[in-house]
């Protein structure tokens, strides 16, 4: 398994939260899953707590794991500020042992798409299986890519988002390129950040 490059703005919790602010439409779904299957809940690749913190606000016991310490630091800061209790653990979703089982493991926000090869996917699924109770559920959110996006010219950049720089000085403009490999069926998206001067 190749370690991920986590020294990138994508993994900076402050930038992530600014870029993804307003992304809340999936929260009612995750709350409904927790109500149906019970807690404790394990969230894989929890990032800054975009899903975990709202679940904790609904009084669910939740553990969030992520490989990025900057993301977890932001999650801890937000969780403390909002008075929620979440167990935050720095670990790799491909190789973790938490010593407990969960009736519900969740993988929101298309994050499973970060597992680019079969070895990584199988390693993650094996860890999940070991952490599920006998009747536990593993719920994954994954999108169905639109053909027009997959067929984009990989040499061109397309608008992705704009957000206020976390330090309050100017706007960060994010563009992206899209390169789809039909043989592997992997869609590689590169994000390009233009920071204010």
UniProtKB/TrEMBL annotation:
<dbReference type="GO" id="GO:0008168">
    <property type="term" value="F:methyltransferase activity"/>
</dbReference>
<dbReference type="InterPro" id="IPR041698">
    <property type="entry name" value="Methyltransf_25"/>
</dbReference>
<dbReference type="GO" id="GO:0032259">
    <property type="term" value="P:methylation"/>
</dbReference>
<keyword id="KW-0489">Methyltransferase</keyword>
<feature type="domain" description="Methyltransferase">
    <location>
        <begin position="41"/>
        <end position="136"/>
    </location>
</feature>
<dbReference type="Pfam" id="PF13649">
    <property type="entry name" value="Methyltransf_25"/>
</dbReference>
<keyword id="KW-0808">Transferase</keyword>
<dbReference type="InterPro" id="IPR029063">
    <property type="entry name" value="SAM-dependent_MTases_sf"/>
</dbReference>
<protein>
    <submittedName>
        <fullName>dTDP-3-amino-3,4, 6-trideoxy-alpha-D-glucopyranose</fullName>
        <ecNumber>2.1.1.234</ecNumber>
    </submittedName>
</protein>
């Amino acid at each position: 398994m190749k370690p991920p490059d986590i020294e990138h703005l994508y993994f900076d919790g402050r930038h992530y939260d600014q870029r993804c602010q307003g992304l809340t439409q999936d929260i009612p779904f995750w709350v409904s899953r927790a109500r149906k299957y019970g807690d404790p809940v394990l969230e894989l690749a929890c990032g800054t707590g975009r899903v975990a913190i709202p679940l904790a606000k609904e009084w669910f016991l939740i553990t969030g794991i992520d490989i990025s310490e900057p993301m977890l630091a932001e999650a801890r800061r937000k969780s403390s500020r909002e008075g929620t209790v979440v167990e935050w653990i720095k670990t790799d979703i491909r190789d973790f042992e938490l010593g407990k089982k969960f009736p519900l493991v969740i993988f929101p926000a298309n994050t499973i798409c970060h597992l680019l090869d079969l070895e990584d996917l199988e390693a993650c699924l094996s860890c999940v299986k070991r952490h599920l109770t006998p009747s536990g559920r593993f719920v994954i959110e994954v999108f169905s890519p639109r053909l027009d996006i997959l067929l984009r010219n990989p040499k061109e950049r397309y608008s992705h988002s704009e957000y206020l720089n976390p330090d309050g000085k100017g706007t960060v403009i994010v563009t992206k390129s899209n390169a789809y490999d039909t043989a592997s069926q992997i869609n590689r998206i590169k994000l390009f950040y233009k920071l204010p001067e």
